[in-house]
Amino acid sequence: MKKVVSVMLAGALALSLFTGCSPKKSGKTNSIAIAIQPSFAFVPVYVAKEMGYLEEAFAKDQIEVKWNDFESGPPINESLAAGSSDIGLLGDVPSVSAIAAGQDNELIALACDGPDAYVLLAAADNTSVTSMEDLRGKKVATVLGSTGHNMIKKLLEDANMTFDDIQLTNIAAGDVGIVLSTGDVEAAAIWEPNATRLIDNGTARAVFYGSDTSLKGTNALVARSAYSKNNPEIITTFLEQIVKAVKDIDNGNVPEEVWSKIGEYLRLSNEQIQRLLPKYYYGIKWDEANKDALQDTIGFLVSIGRLEEEYNIRDYINDSYYNAIQNK
């Protein structure tokens, strides 16, 4: 069995066994619980939520829509493991880590990719950093084990450097502005919308973007297999509404008041939202490049010791729900 070095996730799985918060029984259900987090990667889901698309679509079958709000991916995985959420919005690392830990999930759709949503920042007044060579021997910060960590690895490899050539420092995502402004680190890798906030408030400047490397920035819509396999029609209806929201975004049909509500959730202005949208491709159908990107994430996690062995992510990607939409 594949294993992940993750005390938090292991604890969550144990908790689900011993606290009475056990996973829901398999079978048909009359509800769908969606675990969300404040990441720009999942804007179509927020549009569908604010437009009431899901509640409207499920009303005829009297299916209740529940929204569970979390700050990040790991607690969403805990919620899926405990059975209190059925679908989770997850980045690449938590998506593949939960499966590696033995969690029975399947990837039901691509949420987005957005390489330029990942940014290596330096302090705004630090003009000395223009290349990875400028960071040799210097402190570079990120959330260890994150996509930002993977971005730094790729930037180093492209410059014929390794982690031994820098002082890699672990920080919380919310502390990037502090460590840059105090000079505790020379650079930090972070993701949106954190990067835009820091650049716009004059704290930081962008040195590299994910597209300067092979980083894809893949995010996923993940479901508990026990739920999705027994309720495929609910999953298909859910995805139909997300596709509808994507079309609204692409066609400029999202009302300003909806953007304002989403902006409150993401702590962004409407103007910032419009600047960020082009950084993302919001798709539902998996393509081979995004599958390869998740496989690359698995390899990265093995290389830093977070996973013990690689596995084939394609075994856990289920295209049938998207295909069902196309066949209607």
Characterise the protein shown here:
- The structure is a single chain.
- The protein is built from 14 helices and ten strands.
- A five-stranded mixed sheet has the order 2-1-3-10-4, with helices on both faces. A five-stranded mixed sheet has the order 7-6-8-5-9.
- The protein has 328 residues and is of the alpha/beta class.
- The chain has helices spanning 7-18, 43-50, 53-59, 73-82, 92-100, 147-158, 176-181, 194-200, 225-228, 232-250, 256-266, 270-276, 288-303, 320-326, and strands spanning 31-36, 64-69, 87-91, 105-113, 118-123, 139-142, 167-170, 187-191, 204-209, 218-224.
- Helix 2 (43-50) crosses helix 11, helix 5 crosses helix 13 (288-303) and helix 10 crosses helix 14 (320-326).
What tags apply to this protein structure?
328 residues; disordered N terminus
Characterize the biggest β-sheet. Answer: 5 strands, mixed
H/E series: HEHHEHEHEEEHEHEHEEHHHHHH
Tell how many strands the DSSP assignment holds.
Answer: 10
Order of neighbouring strands in the sheet with most strands:
2-1-3-10-4
Give me a quick take on this structure:
41% of the residues lie in helices and 18% in strands.
Topology:
Elements lengths: L6 H12 L12 E6 L6 H8 L2 H7 L4 E6 L3 H10 L4 E5 H9 L4 E9 L4 E6 L15 E4 L4 H12 L8 E4 L5 H6 L5 E5 L2 H7 L3 E6 L8 E7 H4 L3 H19 L5 H11 L3 H7 L11 H16 L16 H7 L2
Parallel strand pairs: 1-2, 1-3, 6-7, 6-8
Antiparallel strand pairs: 3-10, 4-10, 5-8, 5-9
Helix pairs in contact: 1-4, 2-10, 2-11, 3-10, 5-13, 10-14
